[in-house]
Amino acid sequence: MELTQVLDGHLLDLLYSAAGDPGAEGWSLFLQAVAERMRATWTGFLSIDAAAREHSLNFNFGIPEEATRLYEEYYGALDPWFLGYKQKKMQGWAGSGAELCPPHEVEKTEFCNDYFRPYDLFHECGTIIEQPAGKLGVLTSLRRRHEPDFGPEDVGFIRALVPHLKRGLSLHEKIVGLKQAATAAGEVVDKLDVALIGLNGEGKVCFTTLRADSILRSGTILALRDERIVTRDPVSTADWNRAWKLAASPELDTGSSPRSITVHDGEHCLHVAMFPFRQSRPLFADRMKVMVVITDPAAQPKSREDLLMSLFGLTPAEARVAMLLVSGLEPKEISEKTETTQNTVRFQLKVIYRKTGVNRQSQLVRLLSTLPGTCLATSVAPFGEPKSGELRPRVV
Q1: pLDDT by residue (tens digit) across 251-261?
Q2: Do 102 and 169 share a domain, yes or no?
Q3: Closest-CA residue to 32 (of 44, 24, 19)
Q4: pLDDT tens, 269-325?
Q5: Res 357: pLDDT
Q6: Which domain holds residue 120?
Q7: 113 and 42 within one domain
Q8: Domain of 321: which CATH number?
Q9: Which residue, among 126, 120, 179, has the nearest Cα to 147 in the 3D structure?
Q10: Which residues contact 30 (CB under 8 A, 6 or more apart)?
Q11: Structural contact between residues 42 and 62, judged by C-beta atoms closer than 8 angstroms
Q12: Is 129 left (phi over 0), alpha (psi -120 to 50) or beta?
């Protein structure tokens, strides 16, 4: 019998659905189906980083939380089947745990007597999949001691599942990576001094940044009604609708040139530029057709110190030292201005270079020159606190 014949379509549907979902629910459903097929009490998917000695039980079916915690914190490093895999230097293993460590040896282990015995578990069957950077993915199924050990039919099922599991894990890793990249990029975008709004082909909002949400919630100039942007001034609303339709029209050769308008409420105004959005990017919704960029001319730009703290994780003191260095001061002068020792300043500079990914002062200057915002290093009090009577930049 071909190995693929021991698999059913429903199980593979669950696997590839889980692979395409960055969450855990899909994997739980897949592992439940595996447990039913294997007649297993516990089924789990582990990730093992042997170099870092980390054992993580990422997804599971039937495993109590306390058992998960104990395995990750201590017993994973004592797992007799994993130790047998390492000792035998096996590659691409799939089979019964008895192949890695005989049952009579398992019975002698602390893992069996202190960890498995309270749960009455003993038999194991699964596969270990080698992944990039020396990491391992482990699918494991476990039965109770009084039940029969896993047989050839169970091993055949696991081996048939391996190529699909490899593809599923690869797909899942890519999707999780894209989600993480999109989240990180979104966090950076939210720190800029502009508001971004994405519109679909019907002019409905499909993407916003935090700054855009703030503008729409205030409702003073722009507001959200039935998923569409409206203004307090009917003329401005007509201008808005005309601009996004031109930017979204595929038959017009608008290229990347923005359609610009100004919207106001009589006292304040916002500058709006609309760009055709022709390509799909992971950060934004695929259905987005127009990117709207909104700036407030009355708002002071965020200081570069704030951006350094937000984007690179610098402390207020480190951000101030960075800006003083860029302004041309030597470490001795910086120590006098900040009322610290030169050794402290030198240590802070090492941390600043490490966090920003540069190696010397000239690289730091070039980096800061690319950031928007004003330089407040000479006007702020120590550790970035505003002086008496000084106002921080207003965030729209």
Answers
A1: 554 444 557 88
A2: yes
A3: 44
A4: 888 888 887 654 444 545 788 888 888 877 766 677 777 887 788 898 998 898 888
A5: 84
A6: 3-181
A7: yes
A8: 1.10.10.10
A9: 120
A10: 11, 14, 15, 17, 18
A11: yes
A12: beta
Q: Which of 132, 139, 140 is nearest to 165 (CA)?
A: 139
CA distance 101 to 105: 6
158 and 216 in a common domain: no
SS3 295: strand
Tens-place pLDDT, residues 128-158? 998 877 889 999 999 999 999 999 999 999 9
In this predicted structure, the answer to whether residue 377 has a pLDDT above a threshold of 50 is: no
243 and 156 in a common domain: no
Same domain, 275 and 314: no
**391 in any annotated domain:** no
Domain termination site, one of 181, 201, 221: 181
CA torsion through residues 178, 183, 186, 191, sign: negative
Residue 387, pLDDT > 60, answer no
Say how many domains are in the chain: 3
Q: What is the DSSP letter of 221?
A: S
Q: How far from chain centre, in Å, is Cα 31? A: 24
Identify whether residues 160 and 212 lie together within a single domain. no
Single-letter residue type at 153:
E
The CA-atom distances, in angstroms, between 231 and each of 208, 222, 240, 269, 347 are 17, 5, 8, 11, 52
pTM: 0.55
Q: Report residue 134: phi and psi, to 5°.
A: 75, 15
Mean pLDDT of the chain: 82
Boundary (domain end) residue, out of 161, 181, 201: 181
Contact indicator for 85, 128 with CB cutoff of 8 Å: yes
- pLDDT beyond 70 at 238: yes
* DSSP string covering 298-366: TSPPPPHHHHHHHHH---HHHHHHHHHHHTT--HHHHHHHHT--HHHHHHHHHHHHHHHT-SSHHHHHH
Token digits for 55? 């054992």
